[in-house]
Amino acid sequence: MGSQGKTVFRRSPVTRFPDILHRALFKSFSLLGRRSQGAVLRRYFDWWHRRPDPWQLSTDTYEQHKYQTTLEQLPDAAYRRVLEAGCSEGVFTELLATAYPDADITGVDISEKALERARLRNGEFADRVRFVHADILDHDLQAGFDLVVCAETLYYVGGGDRLRHASHRLTSLLAAGGILVLVHPWPEARRLHRFADAAPGLSKIGERVERDAHRPFSVSLYRAARESRTVS
Predict the structure, then answer these.
(1) Which of 21, 78, 170, 215 is the 20 to 30 A CA-CA neighbour of 223?
(2) What does the domain layout of the chain look like in residue ranges?
């Protein structure tokens, strides 16, 4: 697997009206206090996962293409500790566990219902894959991950200070030289990834923009500085 350090431009993206409504709903949640927002999101996503695989992550060809594109961009490395933030039911977690058989992997999600299914899906990897019920805005995970992946998640936290805080929390989990991967709809990714773009001690090493999908997306890659650093 190798990182491609250039942006690939194809057709122009089309903003879908359901996506606009979706963003507006979660923007309104971000007006609440951080704890209240977290409580609302937990209830919402537990309700959303009342039925298995509500986004059809395991079967949808678009989602499978996005997963494969993300894996193809990862730099070749022996990742020992991997974190997936917003893992949902563990579909991509399973792909990570298969691609990196020597890695210890942690999946994090705000929905316990989703995590119950993630544990079942990844049962064969139970000796090295664990799932943690937590909010990326408020967690007690220990730093030192060689790879941190966050896909289709940052638009749920809101904008401004909330987005800055979430980006910094993700960045602070990296080991020296670790890789952060952010995957979000394009061109919204420009806004969602802007704090990672500007983070001290973090260098952008690649970006792939898929414009030929019915829902264009960006895979952005960052590398933490080799020396120790502090991220606020």
Answers:
(1) 215
(2) 17-224
